[in-house]
Amino acid sequence: MGKSFTQSSLTKKFVMAFAGLFLITFLFVHMGINLLVLLPSTDAFNIAAHFMGTNILIKVFEVVLFGGFFIHIIYGLILQVQNWMARPNRYKVEGWSHTSPFSKFMIHTAVIIFIFLVIHMADFYFKAKFFGGVDEVMIDGKPYHDLGALVLAKFQMIGFVIGYIVAFIILGFHLHHGFQSGFQSLGLNHSKYTPLIKSLSTLVSIVLAVGFSIIPLVIYFS
Amino acid sequence: MNLTLKIWRQPGPDEKGQFVNYPVSDVSPDSSFLEMMDVLNEQLVEKGDEPVAFDHDCREGICGMCSMYINGRPHGPDDAITTCQLHMRKFKDGETITIEPWRAKPFPVIKDLIVDRSSFDEIIQAGGFVSVDTGGVPDANAIPIPKIDADLAMDAAACIGCGACVAACKNASAMLFVSAKVSQFALLPQGKVEAKRRVQKMVAKMDELGFGNCTNTYACEAECPKEIKVTNIARMNREFFAAKVCAPSE
Q1: Residue A90: which of B103, B235, B245 has the nearest Cβ?
Q2: Hey, which CATH number is domain A3-86+104-221, 3.90.1170.50, 1.20.1300.10, 2.60.40.3450, 3.30.70.580?
Q3: Angle A177-A180-A181 (CA atoms, 0-180°, nearest 5)?
Q4: Does the distance separating the beta carbons of A181 and B237 come in below 8 Å?
Q5: Which residues of B touch A89 (CB under 8 A)?
Q6: What ipTM score was computed for the predicted complex, to two decimals?
Q7: Secondary structure (DSSP) of B78-113
Q8: Is CATH 3.90.1280.20 the right assignment for the domain spanning B3-111?
């Protein structure tokens, strides 16, 4: 292999696509657990959150997950900077070919998602893991972090609800292009399956955006 | 037709350029875009002004020399054509037409609308060739090639290397061009000898020259005068990883 492989534009795209598709699988797991908070009792959500925070296999997986985020973000930045450098003089009339508008705003949607991620981590992940500040609740005689109560409290604030929903609509835009684009970067393009992958891309982006957004809406209005 | 042309004028590679407005009148809707440019240049020469420098050669859409970015589109407002095949009837009377050179770091402006596209030649030199046996001419039917492979190879070989893909891409990426040149050989038995080395060398050269990276926006495919498909880019990706991961290191 060697230097030409690790630094090649195609390798960077391959790794970024692989990491991106992996992160989408994580989003589905995350959404599934989040939806538990809508059950009449938050016990199931708290137990699931506890399992995700303590299970040894999940802890190993957590490192892989952070690696996935890190690689996707770093490679995305490197590729974007190279792309800007490739055209130092811009056009007076910018091109607008008949292509997906979402694909033209990947870096913009990425920055908004990153900002959301930082706020989200500070609000929930780090709070529960390191900073404390999360109350405890007893379920079947065992103490659990009451993250369910934290979520319910947060989503009483209209600003928080709007910010959360906007972030996930933007994530939907990012994934609408990202999901199907990942397959192309991995070299997977087929006359029979690519139209299916593109439809799946729309479905994935809508399911994730709606699935996550429905949670604050239900909590706020109930 | 009466038109206003807003044209990028730049006296030389290292000199500062600017847009200059030129009114042109009585343009025939049936004339080609380059014929309209010829009329403008004739007027400029008669006035003692410097004519607008632009690339052209065959004027029938096969040489890939003409290279104007017209109203935000390489080769102007029509599909699957080069600038020389563009007719003035595609514009409205009284319209202002903005004409720019291809914009990409590896395509430096030489003068006005002419850019240096020798970086494409460098990519071809890096690996865009096949080994040819010496000796007698082999029978045409001696090498069996599936029809679909022959068709796809010919489709890829239709690329005229005009650079519209780079000009259209928001990242100034040359991946459609490189992938077409990789595919036209990768699909054929004659190209198999250098296949693994070819894709690695051409991609490395493309990166070295400072072209951007593909973000799968597919503006290249939308604007390519020869309708080269982005499936070639996926093929190049496959060829590249197969070569890097599976081929024995030299």
Answers
A1: B103
A2: 1.20.1300.10
A3: 70
A4: no
A5: 103
A6: 0.93
A7: SSS--GGG-BGGGS-TT-EEEEEE--BTTB-EEETT
A8: no
Domain B118-246, second-level architecture: Orthogonal Bundle (1.10)
CA distances from B159 to A151, A189, B162, B224 (A): 56, 20, 8, 9
Q: How confident is the model at residue A40 (pLDDT cuts 50, 70, 90)?
A: very high
Query: Tens digit of pLDDT for each residue in B181-229?
Result: 999 999 999 899 899 999 999 999 999 999 999 999 999 999 999 999 9
Partner residue opposite A4 with nearest CB, options B105, B171, B204: B204
CA pair distance A82, B72, nearest whole angstrom: 22
Q: Which two tokens stand for residue B218?
A: 């597919």
CA of B133 vs chain A CAs: smallest distance (Å): 30
Task: Give the pLDDT confidence of A199-208 residue by residue, as tens digits.
Answer: 999 999 999 9
Q: List pLDDT tens digits, range B14-45.
A: 999 999 999 999 999 999 999 999 999 999 99
Count Cα neighbours of B77 within 13 Å in the Cβ-side half-sphere.
12
